[in-house]
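Example record used in the benchmark description.
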Amino acid sequence: MLRTPNADRARMLRGIILNCLHVASQGQALNPDNPNTMGRDVLLMTLEKMASLTSNEELHATLNYLQGKQYIEVAWLNDGTGSFASIELLVAGIDLAEGTTQDPGVTFRLRR
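Model output (structure tokens):
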């Protein structure tokens, strides 16, 4: 299989987002009413702090992939902007983040 830098970046970004959601849901969750949910602004700030902030187009493609695989649920806004309010980590996404399942389309950074 031919690997391109863009494909590698896409796989890594998918893993970063899943890992962010998974870590945020542990312990003192950001949203006590639904600990598996993260708002758009928090996600963007987190990606920026991790030097992983990307274009809206790339972010939306990443979220569409993860939602299509049922790893997350995206609360898309119906205001014509194509944006979203929040994302929620689903059971399959938790399994992937915890390493009990695998997806060749998602790469996680090495954990120490």
